[in-house]
UniProtKB/TrEMBL annotation:
<keyword id="KW-0963">Cytoplasm</keyword>
<protein>
    <recommendedName>
        <fullName>T-complex protein 1 subunit epsilon</fullName>
    </recommendedName>
</protein>
<keyword id="KW-0143">Chaperone</keyword>
<dbReference type="InterPro" id="IPR002423">
    <property type="entry name" value="Cpn60/GroEL/TCP-1"/>
</dbReference>
<dbReference type="GO" id="GO:0140662">
    <property type="term" value="F:ATP-dependent protein folding chaperone"/>
</dbReference>
<dbReference type="GO" id="GO:0016887">
    <property type="term" value="F:ATP hydrolysis activity"/>
</dbReference>
<comment type="similarity">
    <text>Belongs to the TCP-1 chaperonin family.</text>
</comment>
<dbReference type="InterPro" id="IPR053374">
    <property type="entry name" value="TCP-1_chaperonin"/>
</dbReference>
<dbReference type="InterPro" id="IPR027409">
    <property type="entry name" value="GroEL-like_apical_dom_sf"/>
</dbReference>
<dbReference type="InterPro" id="IPR012718">
    <property type="entry name" value="Chap_CCT_epsi"/>
</dbReference>
<dbReference type="Pfam" id="PF00118">
    <property type="entry name" value="Cpn60_TCP1"/>
</dbReference>
<comment type="subunit">
    <text>Heterooligomeric complex of about 850 to 900 kDa that forms two stacked rings, 12 to 16 nm in diameter.</text>
</comment>
<keyword id="KW-0067">ATP-binding</keyword>
<dbReference type="InterPro" id="IPR027413">
    <property type="entry name" value="GROEL-like_equatorial_sf"/>
</dbReference>
<dbReference type="InterPro" id="IPR017998">
    <property type="entry name" value="Chaperone_TCP-1"/>
</dbReference>
<keyword id="KW-0547">Nucleotide-binding</keyword>
<dbReference type="GO" id="GO:0051082">
    <property type="term" value="F:unfolded protein binding"/>
</dbReference>
Amino acid sequence: DMSNAIVAQDEMGRPFIIVRDQGNKKRQHGLEAKKSHILAARSVASIIRSSLGPRGLDKILISPDGEITITNDGATILSQMELDNEIAKLLVQLSKSQDEEIGDGTTGVVVLASALLDQALDLIEKGIHPIKIANGFEEAAKLAVQELEEKSDDVIKEQRLFKDYLFEAAKTSLGSKIVSKDLDRFAQIAVNAVTSVMDEDRKDVDFELIKLEGRVGGSLKDSKLINGVILDKDFSHPQMPKVILPREGQDSVKLAILTCPFEPPKPKTKHKLDISTVEEYQKLQNYEQEKFKEMIEYVKKAGADVVICQWGFDDEANHLLLQNDLPAVRWVGGQELEQIAIATHGRIVPRFQDLSADKLGSCSKVYEMEFGTTKDRMLVVEKCQDAKTVTCFIRGSNKMIVDEAKRALHDALCVVRNLVKDSRVVYGGGAAEVSMSLSVSEEVDKQRGIGQYAFRAFAQALDTVPMILAENSGLDPIETLTLLKSKQLKEQTSKIGVDCLGKGTNDMRELFVVDPFIGKRQQILLASQLCRMILKIDNVIISGKDEY
Ligand code: ADP
């Protein structure tokens, strides 16, 4: 449609087209715009909500090129959805922020944000100005977080139980994931991984020290924590030993970590190397032999038991290494080399001449890990001296399961790390949300004017979390919510939540269903911020599909 386009010429005489209006782009203003944003957000949330909680459904995602992902992780589901709506994209962003800052609670944050938006829509339809709604929500969020903090329990006070709490919180996080059949094993992996690398004084956990590796094959229950580094490699010669332990009189296995190739430097001749006689060939061979021997001599003299090399080496070198009792690993990538160096307190050495005893890495064992009947092997550099590096090694029968298990474990690692950083917990199964909702509701009557509506709406948005958990577990949402509220009020506690797994009690403390306080707080803050942002946007150009 060129009716509102004018052909003009620039000063050089080149024609160009002025389009007076932005083609078929639709502009939406004010309330209409807001309503349509909220409806878009709602459609995204409706996909996510059925994934919430231990009885949430897994989603199967198929990418345009046919790759299949099975997941229950909100951030993952959203990131793979092809969305062309800007508001829906904001929800993706929201879930990503929660993921980046906290690592868990990515489904919950989207559920809460969209519940807030739903409530906002009702208020807009009642004629309340969006900015006033946003302000009211912000006040209510402050109050909710305050209540959350007051009711949180600091589990470090129960030092004896601290590890139990870490374990239970990891279980709560994993409970809704693919690994739930082997909950204890995975929760233990998460706790052991974090506690073995954590800095107890600084209450900090360096995630760089925790590697997540996966290998298709076996089953989830073959997954384990390895104290050290794993390489997708094997020894360079099949006759080299499969297990290397410290030599007699030594307390560790010494590793030479090399970035120089086992390859003789080219002979320094002025002219092109020209081999025409047998003698000349012999000479060259001898020269190479000499050089190899020299290199091996350097390695031996430094006291190395194992050679880790960034480069490959030919059969000749390989054979000499074998003869000289030097098991070797070749083609080790730069990043892996660095990992080994960190884990073994060794130095990466660029030239054979630079090798010396103090530059070698140390560990208690290097061995090839075999996988049942397959020819697959991996190399484990184990129990590195006082260096803290661990590898969570995930097995599973196919790539989709391994990938989802990795994501699940990542979430659990985050939960445990969060508790190490801040040991306050709140109770899960919607207990914390009910308690916040009750406290915000209590304030409703103290608010004047619009605030009343906003506070009530905010409380109702919080209520949707336990309601969805109930619904996903096959319980009646309204009945459950009513029960939780009356119990919390009657017993003056914030620990009553949804019994998703039918354990026969609503006491989340008894069930040990706990979430880190900082994760829950972040959900509230991020969800209300996002809501505020959307309520403030009132002029969006929606580009029509048929534009052009
Ligand atoms: P997210 O991606 O937001 O972490 P999940 O699907 O992992 O979402 O669900 C987390 C919610 O499920 C939290 O509210 C948590 O308290 C709740 N939850 C987890 N395990 C249990 C359980 N055993 N009983 C009741 N609620 C649980």
